[in-house]
Every structure is written in structure tokens, then in C-alpha cells.
Amino acid sequence: MSEINRIDEVEEILEQICENIPEYAYDNLNGGIILSEETKFHEESVGDSLVILGEYRRDITGNMIKIYYGSFMEMFKYSSHEELYERLEHTLLHEFTHHLEFMANEYGLVIEDKKFIDEYKKRYDK
Asked: Is residue 1 a part of any domain in this protein?
């Protein structure tokens, strides 16, 4: 079966979502929003069972949000446009929340994400 290429659709959806995000949310997001073609697996993943759809990154190049197109295609390749939109919106808003919490010196979502990983690991620790 040939690979379905939806990268143009994903780019278009991300642009639509970004238009609805308030300007203040972009403050200090100097690395912008990057759509990477890679599929990224979480470092705690057992096999290839836990993909990373997006992440908020802070490093020497700046603060940025990365969305992993390959990961989205791993999970949602055959999803409708509407479902893909919802999944991308959820992921992008999640990463913006990380950014805004970091700027406010709050880490509620980091704690929530850690709890998710701890629960995931419990399923494989037997």
C-alpha cells in the first residue's frame, strides 16, 4: 500500500488553528511552530507504543513548538479531515499551555503529563 501524504493538509490545518490563538500566546515563542516530518517515540515507550505528537521545547535556539507529522500519520493517517483537525488542535493547544505555563512559572501540565507517563509505565511493569 502506498503511503498517504497529507502534509499539505496538516500545514493548512495548523495555519487555521494558529489564526484563532490570541497574539499574547505567541510572546517569547521566538522559535515559532515547526512541523517536523519525523515520527517521534517517547523515551519511555515500550517498543513503538507511545508516539509524541508534539512538544514544547526550550533550548539555545529559543522557545518553540514542534508538531510531528510522522507521529500524526502513525496514529491518524486514515482519519477524516475533521478528526485530524481536532487532534491537531488538541495537541497544539496542549503545547501552547506548556509555553504559557512556563512563562508564568507554573507547571501543572508538566505534572499531569508525568502522571500519564507513570500510569503508562505501570501497564508494562509486571
From this structure: no
